[in-house]
Amino acid sequence: MAKKLGGFILFGLAAGAAAAGVYHYLSTREKELADIDDFDDLENSGEEKSKRSYVNLDSVKTFAGETFDKAKGFAKEAYDKVSKKVQEVVSDKKDDAAEAVEEAAEAAEDVAEAAEDAAEEAASESEDFFDDKE
Question: Which of the pair, 36 or 29, is modelled with greater confidence?
Answer without folding.
Answer: 29
